[in-house]
Amino acid sequence: MIAQDFDAIARRIRDSHILRARSRIGKYRIEKKLAQGGFATVYQAWDTIEGVHVALKMPHQYVVTASMLDAFQREARLIAKLEHPNILGLKDASFIDGRFVIASRLGTQTLAMRLKHRIGLATALLYIEQLIQAVAYAHRNRIIHCDIKPENLILLSDGRLQLTDFGIAKVAHRTIAHTLIASGSGTVGYMAPEQAMGRPSAKSDVFSIGVLSYRVLTSILPEWPFDWPPKGLANLKRKVHGDLVEVLRKAMEPRPSHRYQDANSLLRAYLPAKRKTLRMRPEIHRG
Questions:
Q1: In the 8-state DSSP scheme, what is residue 36?
Q2: What residue ranges do the domains of the chain occupy?
Q3: Phi, psi of 137 (to 5 degrees)
Q4: How do the residues of the chain divide into helix, strand and coil, expressed in percent and rounded to 5?
Q5: What CATH architecture does domain 2-105 belong to?
Q6: Hey, is 58 helix, strand or coil?
Q7: pLDDT for 175 beyond 50
Q8: What are 214-247's pLDDT values in tens digits?
Q9: Do the Cβ atoms of 107 and 91 come closer than 8 Å?
Q10: Domain 109-285 annotated CATH 1.10.510.10
């Protein structure tokens, strides 16, 4: 009973800080809540000055600490450095009415939403390529994302996929032993084994890409302990070239030393395997 009362109080506190539809914060008019996590809420809003829809990400007022606010500001600085067609750009990051607000372009839906419906093979291959391109660019800038999942991939009206939410991304500061100093943050289901133990690296992003790509192509999310072959492999082999199957197998390898070094190495292997799949399945270009 006490636990239920505590949960009810926590919900009331949380909900009391949610901005309602048509409320204003600076130049933005809130339209609806898009997502709510443990640390922040994302809203769809209308920019009354520029006349465009935006996504506003705001840390929860009731849990904001100096260190958490620093993390959100660090995220804004990271995003500001990354200019790539497959990374969701930053429109603005500032304090508005006492709240820290990160504003970005609004997509039509997330990949998580898109995965609820069938995705054609050509489209699936394009989404995967765009994801790898985005992460490869981040890796070239010595940034690892650490939380690659369908909810952090936004689809735009022009068909582009963009990677977002660098909230737990890590700049690759390395020790003498060449191991990355970072936490074990991430999302269960897409997180590499070594990342779960607090040792993420660029190879951890490669693992997440591999698992997510397998789900996009087969509608099946591989489960721990990630033994090969996972469910759905027979169906995958009927759809794509054997080289692409091998690319996914190597990307999803539980042992980091057996994976691609980073997303750039993965991209070099993926592109020719994708081309072979397209030549093998010319009918996917039609309709």
A1: E
A2: 2-105, 109-285
A3: -65, -45
A4: 45, 20, 35
A5: 2-Layer Sandwich (3.30)
A6: strand
A7: no
A8: 999 999 999 888 889 999 999 999 999 999 999 9
A9: no
A10: yes
| Spatial separation of the C-alpha atoms in residues 282 and 287, rounded to whole Å | 11
Phi, psi of 280 (to 5 degrees): -70, -30
163, 131 in Cβ contact below 8 A? yes
Of 5, 70, 97, 147, the catalytic one is 147
Task: Look up residue 105 and give its two tokens.
Answer: 């372009």
**Residue 201: strand, helix, or coil:** coil
| pTM exceeding 0.70 | yes
SS3 112: helix
Which residues have CB under 8 Å from 256's CB, separation 6+? 192, 194, 201, 203, 204, 207
Question: Which residue stretches of 98-197 are H helix?
Answer: 111-114, 121-140, 193-196
According to the model, what pLDDT value does residue 185 have? 52
Active site residue 147: yes
**Which residues lie closer than 8 Å to 284 by C-beta, 6 or more apart?**
120, 121, 122, 278
| Rounded average pLDDT over 147-170 | 85
